[in-house]
């Protein structure tokens, strides 16, 4: 009879077993844990006049609307302004919980729970002030070089209507500012952009541009991650948005900015 201590069970496992466990962990990583109730982090981008930084704080009508909803729902919220790619990635990874102000599309619907529409704006084509052409339809932009912000819902919308325009060249820019700079220099024929954003840039930077043609009205929303935020917290926030929309509070917030609440 062996009088020594029995060997520990782990010492009897082969190296191949540990390698298999490590491989399984690599294939099946830990899932994102849902955010605790009463704490949400919303990311946005520099998107004046809707969202921007003033005195080191994220401000603008988008932030004011979400702040009011957070107060209504008794949820503590933080607002971060980041480069758009990073802003989205943080929500995907669960380091932040929502995005605003955004348009709705199929890809975003797959992973974001959208609020009711918050405000209404529009997409439009802008041309130089000395352009005397009268634009009546999309076909009037046939043969044009069209500048648009890269990796944006604006770009997605433009690509959807390109077949209706005809032969064009898409000039994708990292910022709306660079699009207008190219228009000023005559290197593109038109800029496709959110009209409120365009008017804000023209006013603040003095770009030589005017609206030529409106494509369509557009609703803006906030979206909350379906994976990193629990259903109860999402529902409470959505209820608060509905309440401040129905009681007119959203329109009151938008009035000083000359904007309209979505229906």
Describe the structure in brief:
This protein is α/β, with parallel strands linked by helices and 263 residues long. 36% of the residues lie in helices and 26% in strands. The chain has 2 domains: 39-120 and 220-261, D-Maltodextrin-Binding Protein, domain 2, CATH 3.40.190; 121-218, 3-Layer(aba) Sandwich (D-Maltodextrin-Binding Protein, domain 2).
Describe this structure in words.
The protein folds into two domains: 39-120 and 220-261, D-Maltodextrin-Binding Protein, domain 2 (3-Layer(aba) Sandwich), CATH 3.40.190.10; 121-218, Periplasmic binding protein-like II (D-Maltodextrin-Binding Protein, domain 2), CATH 3.40.190.10. 36% of the residues lie in helices and 26% in strands. The chain has helices at residues 15-27, 61-73, 84-92, 106-109, 153-165, 176-184, 195-205, 231-246, 249-254, and strands at residues 39-44, 52-54, 57-59, 76-81, 98-102, 112-114, 119-127, 145-149, 169-173, 190-194, 210-225, 260-261. The strands form two sheets. Strands 1, 4, 5, 6, 7, 8, 9, 10, 11 and 12 form a ten-stranded mixed sheet that branches. A hairpin with a 2-residue loop joins β2 and β3 (57-59). It is elongated, with a radius of gyration of 24 Å. The N and C termini lie far apart (85 Å).
